[in-house]
Write a structure and sequence with these properties.
disordered C terminus, DNA polymerase, domain 1, mainly alpha, 13 helices, globular, 3 strands, 4% strand, hpI Integrase, Chain A
Length: 306
């Protein structure tokens, strides 16, 4: 079946994550169901531009966000590109379909003062400080890694002597990230009190373990971060990705080269990294408005010496 061949192509040739594969499978099934309801034929290979446009519009009418709609259209584009390559279709019905416009969304981040409060709270919270919580926070803020990359870290990826960690990113792309003294200390302390791992991990032993010795679950990490951020901030968004955004924003605010931040984040191109420059530009804009004589701010006139 063409859909299964396409999904295998994503898994083994494109090396897409299981989450991406599952999302594409759902999107293709959803489009197939739309075609079946529209004309009693769910075959994706018989779709035309009109049916693709109709599906995109029906999703928007149903209340889906423009961003999610755009992603679903991207799934169709990838499928029909593959279908043309293998000769299953002669024309791509998505060729002339414009994606819906999405409003610019600046990444949320935490100001430096609040970050200091987060780490102070992790060290001085009620009861014993939690070495796992501290390490998770240090990893996200100290390296900017993604949630999937964090739970996938293996013990042999950590080099405390060189102060680096080896991260396996999207599409199995590997990168080496330097770590600071605070993160290095947090890793060393965590390893000294880490639960005994489950047997049979071998060379692929996870770095982060739950209390039973099993690999740390994504949901556990999300709850841990939300709890830690909730102690010091009233912000609605308290996800691991906020700490990734915070890492990138603070790096750029302190003069880091954009290309260097791109490499640290594991972005394929600069466009994905440039979104973080908007926050620093907005900060500069406010400073300019306040301080420049023609910036629009309210500055006191210098007093004349009598």
């Amino acid at each position: 079946m063409l859909t299964e061949r396409f999904l295998d192509h994503l898994a083994y040739e494109k090396r897409c994550s299981p989450h991406t594969q599952a999302a594409y499978r759902r999107d293709l099934a959803q489009f197939g169901a739309y075609l079946d309801e529209l004309r009693g034929d769910a075959a994706l290979t018989s779709a035309d531009p009109r049916s693709v446009r109709g599906w995109v519009m029906s999703l928007l009418d149903g209340g889906i966000s423009a961003r999610a709609d755009k992603r679903k259209l991207s799934a169709l584009r990838a499928f029909y590109k593959f279908a043309r390559t293998v000769g299953s279709v002669s024309e791509d019905p998505t060729d002339l379909i414009d994606p819906p416009k999405t409003p610019a969304r600046l990444p949320e981040f935490i100001p430096e003062r609040e970050v200091e409060d987060v780490f102070a709270s992790a060290k001085e919270g009620p009861g014993k400080p939690d070495p796992l919580e501290r390490l998770v926070l240090e990893l996200f803020y100290g390296t900017g890694i993604r949630l999937a990359e964090l739970v996938g870290l293996e013990l042999n990826a950590v080099d405390l002597h060189r102060r680096t960690i080896r991260v396996l990113g999207k599409r199995n792309k590997e990168r080496i990230i330097p770590i600071g003294e605070g993160l290095s200390d947090a890793i060393g302390f965590y390893l000294s009190v880490r639960p005994a791992p489950m047997p049979a991990f071998g060379q692929n032993e996870p770095l982060l373990l739950g209390s039973t010795g099993k690999p740390l679950a994504r949901r556990t990490v999300q709850r841990l971060v939300a709890r830690a951020l909730g102690r010091v901030t009233t912000r609605t968004k308290r996800s691991p990705h906020v700490l990734r955004h915070t890492f990138a924003t603070h790096m750029l605010e302190h003069g880091a080269d954009l290309n260097a931040v791109k490499e640290l984040l594991g972005h394929a191109g600069l466009a994905a990294t440039q979104v973080y420059t908007h926050n620093t530009v907005e900060k500069l804009r406010k400073v300019h408005a306040q301080a420049h004589p023609r910036g629009g701010g309210h500055l006191q006139e210098p007093q004349k010496t009598p």
